[in-house]
Amino acid sequence: MTEATGGIDFEEESAGVVKKFMFVNRKAPYGTIYALEGLEVVLISAAFDQDVSLVFLDDGVYQIVKGQHTKAIDVKNFSPTYRALEGYDIEKLYVLKESLEERGLTVDDLLVDVEVLDAAGMARLMAEQDVVLSF
Amino acid sequence: MLHIVNKSPYENRTLENCLRVITHEDGAALLLIEDAVYAATKGNIAENLLKGVMGKIKIYALWPDLEARGMQDRVIDGIKLVDYGGFVDLVAEHRNNQSWL
């Protein structure tokens, strides 16, 4: 009987079903609200003990570059939060090699440890997910 | 896996960025909706984007969006057209999907 829960079967949830969730981050951090909203959803997802992966593609790689200082634009610098994800057992962070290279960046420019994947590797990782959420 | 793109190839590089991370195995599919339907048309500089993956992945375009833009007679051969019901079927048929917002 799932009518009262909007069709969500909480019995199954409590039985410990773990799905592969991927959060795809493709936007630079301050020009739009996508990056911050995505990060908040990632933090929420940590409460559900799922198999979570974060990927940074395209301008999304700018979310995790070192040296962000936002005081002068009067916006919260949320980049340190990516470093806290480890504490929530979110440790699978991936970056697309081509996205870094196109922007003249290397992993040394990033404020978190990531695994760098080429396009084929990224395609395989995406295809094997149960749920993909895009920000 | 189903990939959904909704931006014109002339506005930004979303379609190109999408195409490079589509697997060419396990029934990968691309659905073009909204302004991305311009990429489904022939006789323009964006045509080669899709020519490169034709036959490797399935490509669909949303008919109502093509028609709304007057592009219905310019569709590249081999691109399958779907209506809203077909859109829903595509989402249901695939294991997962990525919307390239």
Short recap of the structure:
Chain A has 135 residues and is an alpha/beta fold.
Count of β-strands of chain A: 5
Q: What's the CATH architecture of chain A? A: 3-Layer(aba) Sandwich
Distance between the ends of chain A: 33 Å
Q: Please state how the strands of the largest beta sheet of chain B are arranged side by side.
A: 4-3-2-1-5
CATH C-level name of chain A: Alpha Beta
Radius of gyration based on Cα positions of chain A:
16 Å
Mean pLDDT of chain A: 91
The description of the largest β-sheet of chain A is:
5 strands, parallel
How many distinct domains of chain B? 1
Q: Helix tally of chain A?
A: 5
Quaternary class: heterodimer
List keywords for this structure.
heterodimer; A: 135 residues; alpha/beta; Hypothetical Protein Ychn, Chain: A; five-stranded parallel β-sheet; 5 strands; B: 101 residues; 4 helices
Topology:
The complex is a heterodimer of chains A (135) and B (101).
Chain A: H1 10-14, E1 20-25, H2 34-45, E2 51-56, H3 80-84, E3 92-96, H4 97-102, E4 115-117, H5 119-127, E5 131-134
Parallel strand pairs in A: 1-2, 1-5, 2-3, 3-4
Chain B: E1 2-5, H1 14-19, E2 29-32, H2 47-51, E3 58-62, H3 63-68, E4 80-82, H4 84-93, E5 97-100
Parallel strand pairs in B: 1-2, 1-5, 2-3, 3-4
Molecular structure report:
The complex is a heterodimer of chains A (135) and B (101). Chain A is α/β, with parallel strands linked by helices and 135 residues long. Chain A has helices spanning 10-14, 34-45, 80-84, 97-102, 119-127; strands at 20-25, 51-56, 92-96, 115-117, 131-134. In chain A, strands 4-3-2-1-5 form a five-stranded parallel beta sheet. The longest helix of chain A has 12 residues, at 34-45. Chain A starts with 9 loop residues before the first helix and ends with a strand. Chain B is α/β, with parallel strands linked by helices and 101 residues long. Chain B has a single domain (2-100), classed as Hypothetical Protein Ychn, Chain: A. Chain B is built from four helices and five strands; from the N terminus they run E-H-E-H-E-H-E-H-E. Chain B has helices spanning 14-19, 47-51, 63-68, 84-93; strands at 2-5, 29-32, 58-62, 80-82, 97-100. In chain B, strands 4-3-2-1-5 form a five-stranded parallel beta sheet. In chain B, strand 3 (58-62), helix 3 (63-68) and strand 4 form a beta-alpha-beta unit. The radius of gyration of chain B is 12 Å and the shape is globular. The model of chain B has no long low-confidence stretch (mean pLDDT 94).
